[in-house]
Specification:
Number of helices of chain B: 17
Order of helices and strands of chain A: HHHH
Distance between the termini of chain A: 43 Å
Shape of chain A: elongated
Number of domains of chain A: 1
Largest interface: A-B, 45 and 52 residues
Number of helices of chain A: 4
Oligomer: heterodimer
Protein name (chain A): Iron transporter
Distance between the termini of chain B: 30 Å
Radius of gyration of chain A: 18 Å
InterPro entries (chain B): PepSY-ass_TM (IPR005625)
Largest sheet of chain A: none
Protein name (chain B): Membrane protein
Structural class of chain A: mainly alpha
Organism (chain A): Acetobacter indonesiensis
Keywords (chain A): Membrane, Transmembrane, Transmembrane helix
Number of strands of chain B: 7
Helix content of chain A: over 70%
């Protein structure tokens, strides 16, 4: 199940600030993890919601069918966005990806006639 | 060192699992018990012995009692008697709150049977967590999606998914926990993924309502009509009316629903001339999806107003996914498989939580570690003990105590809190053994409390609780992780 916590994973590679190998996280580490969590949970939810809205607007289906399909897509999108945010090489990149996806989806939704 | 995709997913798996694991364990166990909600409800009402009638007589008795005693409620929501539940379960608005009672099959009165929520408690707790609306449902929905995330990351993190399936090395400390975790995860993986995602779907309108609000805005009546076309919405006229006879109505409904059975009856404005009676079928024979067939009748004349049989493909797919989660369709063999898979999901969560501590127990131990190892013990043993305590409270509390149903529920949370507190203050290795002993004893008491079982349900409850008691006694032989790894 991967290497033990301090020697691998998203944290160590991002932080060159560690002076010794301990279980304790530096302040910088905490900031980076918090950034990723925020990107994954908050930004991921934003993307999932926008995907639901955009697909509800754009899918060429009856109103009820579009509602159901778009909701299912939104639901599956959220956990996947969280994974994307933690797979990204840096926290800044994770945020960049979230914002890119969100802007694309929002534009698509607006083109489809959605008004926030 | 450049972190690999797998390492970062393993990290996410570990930490999201730790954060949400305890909550998921409680939800999973409650859901597993909900598989047998009607059976538990029957077990918890021993007064039903000798009072059984056929389903339609029981329904008519219930309607008769409600007409006399709850005529001015805006609506009655009834779960119809069926071979699995021999009584009517009724919910109606009583002043400012909701009254919910099992109604006696013979007289239709609620006070013949003891006041208890029965299996309904586990079912409600499973997605409402005993919290006020909408918080419980929101948290449960997020937990369901978190489980999807944990399972997906777990699959990525797991290197040799097929090979490890045939690997179990007992007595090797942390390695054994990992083997058990992998085995439990892989063996029922399709079930775990299905139940997590469909669980999120049942609560989809709580967390992902945006597609719906975009397309329907505030037009709820259009939504209701699209969603279930046979629903008739009629305002109360203000003129009194009396309900039509249920006997012929029920015969007609059974004729329409055959070969499926009747599941739910909704009566709106029961004492008004605009009364409407709606019937939903139970998907017992023809398919999986819930609410695939609905009939609405005029409450006064008994004329059929609308019928809907679900044939729309997308809606059918949605109902299919929903039906997979609630398993109303399932015959007994499938039901037991749901139960066992649910237990294996609970065990998967427990071994995962246990791995977190066993991996870290040889390192420097901070406050976080101590908190986690104690919370682990408190939740792993506290949840089953509290749920088992509910069964005992049902038998021990005097049958006709005031507020009895609430006291049973309170007993659950008192036991839970007591075990959590005990695990907090006691040395972990001792707490592990002692809480397991308490859990095992509680389960043993359930199996003995009724004396010799009479019905199949009593046999099942006795044997299952005896089996769990034995397993927990067996688990006492192992101290969780302090052993030196060999």
């Amino acid at each position: 199940m991967g290497a033990p916590f301090p020697s691998a994973g998203p944290v160590s590679a991002l932080s060159e600030h560690k002076t010794k190998k301990t279980n304790l996280l530096t302040k910088h580490d905490r900031l980076i993890i918090a950034g990723r969590i925020l990107a994954g949970v908050g930004g991921g939810y934003l993307c999932a919601s926008l995907l639901a809205i955009a697909s509800a607007r754009l899918l060429p289906l009856a109103r009820l069918d579009a509602t159901i399909i778009s909701t299912l897509m939104g639901l599956i999108c959220w956990p996947i966005m969280v994974m994307v945010c933690f797979a990204a090489r840096t926290a800044v990149r994770a945020w960049g990806m979230v914002l890119c996806v969100a802007i694309c989806l929002a534009s698509a939704a607006i083109l489809g006639g959605w008004r926030p | 060192m450049k972190p690999t995709f797998r390492a970062s997913m393993a990290w996410l798996h570990t930490w999201s699992g730790l954060v949400i694991g305890w909550l998921l364990l409680a939800i999973t166990l409650a859901g597993t018990l909900s598989v047998f909600r009607p059976e538990i409800s029957s077990w918890m009402r021993p007064e039903l012995h000798g009072r059984l009638t056929d389903a339609d007589t029981a329904t008519q008795a219930a309607i008769g009692w409600l007409t006399a005693h709850a005529a001015h409620a805006p609506a009655w929501y009834l779960e119809a008697p069926s071979p699995r539940t021999p009584f009517t379960y009724a919910v109606w608005e009583d002043g400012t709150s909701y009254a919910q009672h099992a109604l006696d099959p013979k007289t239709g009165a609620p006070d013949v049977l003891r006041d208890t929520l029965g299996g309904e408690f586990f079912f409600r707790f499973h997605f409402e967590l005993q919290l006020p609306y909408p918080w419980g449902r929101l948290i449960a929905a997020v937990a369901a999606l978190a489980l999807v995330l944990i399972l997906l990351t777990g699959i990525v993190a797991h290197k040799r998914i097929f090979l490890d399936f045939f690997t179990f090395r007992p007595g090797k400390g942390q390695r054994s926990w990992l083997d058990a975790h992998n085995l439990l995860g892989v063996v029922a993986l399709p079930f775990h993924l299905m139940i997590a995602f469909t669980g999120a779907i049942t609560l989809a309108n709580m967390i992902m309502p945006w597609g719906l609000t975009t397309l329907y805005k505030q037009d709820f009546s259009a939504l209701t009509h699209d969603f279930s076309p046979a629903t008739i919405e009629r305002e109360a006229s203000g003129k009194p009316g009396s309900l039509t006879a249920f006997g012929p109505l029920l015969a007609d409904v059974r004729h329409h629903f055959a070969p499926n059975g009747l599941a739910r009856i909704t009566v709106t404005n029961p004492s008004d001339s605009n009364a409407v009676i709606t019937f939903n079928a139970i998907p017992s024979v023809s398919g999986v999806g819930v609410e695939n067939h609905t009939l609405s009748y005029d409450g006064i004349t008994g004329k059929l107003l609308a019928e809907h049989r679900e044939t729309r493909p997308v809606m059918g797919f949605y109902r299919f996914l929903y039906g997979l989660h609630v398993a109303y369709f399932a015959p007994y063999v499938t039901r037991w498989l749901y139960f066992l898979s649910g237990l294996s999901l609970a065990a998967l969560i427990c071994t995962g939580l246990q791995l977190w501590t066993s991996k870290r127990c040889h390192r420097q131990q901070g406050l976080g570690f101590k908190l986690v190892e104690r919370l682990n013990i408190g939740m792993m043993m506290g949840t089953p003990t509290a749920f088992a305590g509910y069964f005992i409270a049902n038998r021990v509390l005097p049958p006709f105590l005031a507020n009895r149903a609430q006291m049973e529920v309170r007993a659950v949370f008192c036991i839970w809190a007591a075990i959590l507190l005990f695990a907090m203050v006691r040395r972990p290795n001792a707490a592990w053994r002692e809480t397991l002993a308490i859990s095992s004893l509680t389960c043993l008491i359930i199996s003995l409390i009724g004396g010799i079982p009479h019905s199949p349900i009593e046999w099942a409850v006795s044997l299952v609780s005896l089996g769990i008691a034995v397993l927990m006694r067996y688990a006492m032989r192992y101290t969780p992780y302090r052993k030196k790894q060999s």
